[in-house]
Structure formats: structure tokens, C-alpha cells
Amino acid sequence: MRPFLKRVADAAVYTATGLRTALPALLGLCLLPLAIVLSLTVVALPWLPQLVRPMRALANAERRRAGRLLGHEIPEPYPVPRGGAVEQALTLLRSPTTWRDAAWMCLHGLTGLFMGILPIALVPGIVFALSLPLWWWAAPPGSQAAFVDLYTWKQALTLPFLQAGVNLIVLLVLVPRFPYWQARLANTLLRPTRRVSLSERVEQLTETRAEALEAHGAELRRIERDLHDGTQAQLVAAALRLGLADRRFDADPEASRTLFLEAREGIEDALAQLRGVIRGIYPPILSDRGLGGAVRALAAAQPVPVTLDLPDDRTRAPAAVEAAAYFVVAEALTNVAKHSGASRAEVAVRRDGARLVITVRDDGRGGADPARGTGLAGIRRRVAALDGATGVDSPAGTGTTLRVELPCGS
Amino acid sequence: MRIVIAEDNVLLREGLVLLLTGDGHEVAAVAGTGPEVLPALLEHRPDAAILDVRLPPGFRDEGLRAAIQARREIPGLPILVLSQYVEETYAAELLAGGASGVGYLLKDRVSRVGEFLDALQRVASGGTALDPEVVSQLMTTRRDPLQTLTPREREVLGLMAQGLDNATIAATLVITERSVSKHIGAVFAKLDLPPSDSGHRRVLAVLAYLNS
Q: What ipTM does this complex have?
């Protein structure tokens, strides 16, 4: 009985607090015809975005409230506005989201008021009805009633109890369902339609694809520059020295020996640079040992102890994803060693459905700012290029957590 | 010495054969793929083996795995592992089965023929030859305890970890052998390692320390 009463009370509280959105919604409902007429007369069209703003704020408040009750977030369906005021207004008029918001505002304004007040009014209503048999005869008709004005004792001893019973049934049976109905209404009308979420997704993918192409292009240019200005130039210089040594060999063996040695040094430098370039393209240990083995090797080379939580290597992600994951861990651990002052770190890599989730955590001084420092910015760029997501949580004094999600496409 | 080589690149293989036979060694067998390595070693029982890490058919770390397995089957078999790149992890795996008779070098080092043949000789006689790059990786890992050493002591420690003896260290740093011994004594005291007079045992102690 007690949990049941608590449910009724909770429901009454929920719908009563719902008045905070229901009352403004009711006001909006009253102003809506005016807004529509104004917008249609073109004069007020440029102000439409401003007119829509309070409605959206209201809808957002209800999204959060209903989302808490339903246990899942109701995402905002609003795309980023583009163009001038008139263009924005026309987009708003065309967008189904605007009309769905308006429909919710009208329905919620009416039903929300009713649902908010009814549970509060029912309790005194029951007390009033039950007390009627005691004093109905003293009050003039019109100030006492149970369904109808009472004139006889027969009415006074039946109708008030009937009314109290009906009130009680409404209170105990219907009121606990109000919050659910209200949240359902919000969820149905306020969540993004499939078309809106798809078009948003397409927009986002177009953007990340452009970023990926840009990043790929930059990468190719960097590799070309490294090979052209570094390795190739070194080898040309070495070949030149060998040629010179060949010409002078008979006349001056000692000088040509020096040239030989210089050529060898040049080639050694070129090889070291080439190793660097190869490591930047695709670290060889990834193809030797897979992501797990490569991350283990990274962890072993750190000056601070690193705890690992790695998946088995039987499920391999695409090479590009593994390379990105490897760079994320390498860069993050470099940051830990260089800046965090941490005494230990944790690296976790796991498959979550079609995503690879990488977490790097340390117990250092925190306060890492993604806007500064090239390490985090580099991670973000690299991850965004693969349509992944990067999150940094670094409160001052309690360490840094980096979380990266990469789609694996399978 | 009788030597078995495992290397898939024909040019490099020919070069190695040329280099070794030119120095008076005998190349007993040449393996071109991973699965051929172990049978060749078991059949020829060479004085030393030179293995490339990455071999067909998988082009992963077949050479390294073969080396570890061979050392298990023929204890004490001296093996020099060559690679285009060095990884501390691989060094640790090689050294896990004991550091004596083990070498791990970048392929580039072959161009310094004298040093390369010295390293091979050292490995064949039960010594160690670790690439300077591996050693510097190992020393980064133990950065904190190594802070107590002076720069010169760190240099000496690095060269010792490569497997070099006192005379070579002295020649490399252009100091006397006496001051090398003094530095080594200081390093051992600061790192709290048991003192030992045999050069090779000292190398093993240092590697065990860096690898722990």
C-alpha cells in the first residue's frame, strides 16, 4: 500500500512540476495564431527565428524532464541555423520540427494544465464530498453539489459517496499514469524524426569525410616531403661522395677513403630517417603483433607503470583504425610521461559492437587543455578523420582521462 | 666459424655471405623462409646463427620466434638477430631465455663491417651484442633510478649494456681502462647491484637490471 501511495504522490509531484512547462505552453498556444498571422504577412518573417527561440527553450526543458523519467535522453533535433534571417525563417517554416514543436506546445498546454492541477484538486474534492452529508442542508443550493445540487436526504447519503469513490478511483488508477502519458507525448513529438536524424548524420559524415580527405592529403604531403627532402637528398649526397671517391681513388686514396666513410654515414642517416617515416605511416610492430602486442610494447617502454586491459587479438580492426588507435595510445602515454607528473597510468582497449573504445587514464595533476598543446589536438584530428569521437576529462589535481571511440565498420 | 643465415632478401643474403666468407667463416646453410630456420639449425648445429626478424611466409616476426624456439631446443646456441627496426619488447623476449650468446642489432650496423664482425664474435663466444637504440629504449624505461648516475656513468652503463668489454668502452669514450672500471664500480654501487669481477657477468647483471 505504501509504495502504491508513493507512486501516486510521485506522479502528482511530476505533473505539478510539469506546470512549469505547461503554463508557458498554454501562453504559447494563445500567441500561436498571432505569430502565424504575423509570419505570413511577411513583415514579421525576419523575426521568426526570435519567436521560435522561446518555444525551443520550452521544448528543451520538457525534453530533459521527460528524458529523466523515461531513462533515455531525447535528443534535440535542431540543426545549426544557416544563412540570413529570412532564409532561416523560411527553413523554420519548412521544417517539420517547428510544426511538431508547435503541436506539442498546444497539446501540452491543454493536457499539462489539466494533469498538473487535477491530482492536487482531487484530495480536497474527496474531503469535500465526504463531508457533504453533515452540512448540505444548511447551505443554500448552488454552494453544495455532488454531481447535482442536493435536495433530499436520499441524494445526500448516496451521491457524495459516489463522487468521492469516483475521485478516489481517478486518483489511484489514472493519476499514476499521467507522468508516463506526458513523457510519451514529449517523446513522440519532440524527438528528432528519422528524416531529421538521417540528414544530420549525412551532414556530419560529409564533414568528417572532408576532414578525412584533408588529413589524408596532409599526410601524403608530409610523407612526400620527408622522403624527398630527407631520405632522397641524403642518398643523392652519399652517391655523389661515392662518385667523387671513385674519381680520386688513384690520385689520393686517403681523401677518397674519407669520402667513402662520409657516404656510409649519409646512408646510415638516411636509413634512420626512413625508419622514422615508416613508423609514421604504419608502425611495423602493428603488423608483427597486432594492436594488443603493439600497445603492450608501448606500455613496456614507459617510465611510469602502465596497467593494461586489452582484447584478444583474434578480432582485428581495419589497419587504418588500428594505426589510429596505436597513435592515440602512443601520444597519450607521451603526454602522461611528459606533462602529467603521474605515478601510474591505465590503458584500456575494447570492442564495443562496431566501435573500438580506447581509454587512457592517469593519476597526475590534470588540467590538460585540448585547445592548447599539439598532442591532444593531434589526437582529435586523427580521430575525427575516421569519424570517431574524442573526450578529455582533466579536472585540476585528479588526473586526466582520455576516451576515444573509433568506428570499425564491422 | 660455421654460420647459418636466415634472410629472405637475396641482395642482403649475398652480401652477408660475401662478408662472412671474406672474413674466413663458413656459411653452412642459408634459409629463406621462417619454417626452414629451425630444421637448418638442428641439422647443422652451427657456431652461430644470423636471423632476420621478418621472414616469409607471414612477414611478421617469424625469425624472432624461430630464434627463441631454437635456443630452447639447442641451449646456448649463439644467435644474432637482425632487424630493420628494433623494439625493446623483442629484446626482452630474446633476453628472457638468458643473455649469453644473444645479439640483437639493426640491419644498418652491417655497414660497419669491423664492429659487426666483432659483435658476431662476441655472441659466438657467449657474450651479448645489443643495439645502441635498444639500450637507449631500455634506459628510458628505467629513467628514474638512472637519474642518480652522472652523465659519464650513464654513458658507460649504456656501452656496457650493448655488451662491450672494458677495453672497447675505454677506446670508445677515449678514457683509460682504469677510469672505466672506476665508473662501473660507481654504477654498480648506485644501482645496488652485486659487484662482480667477470666482465660478462657484469653485462648480464646490467641487462637483468634494465630489463626488470
A: 0.83
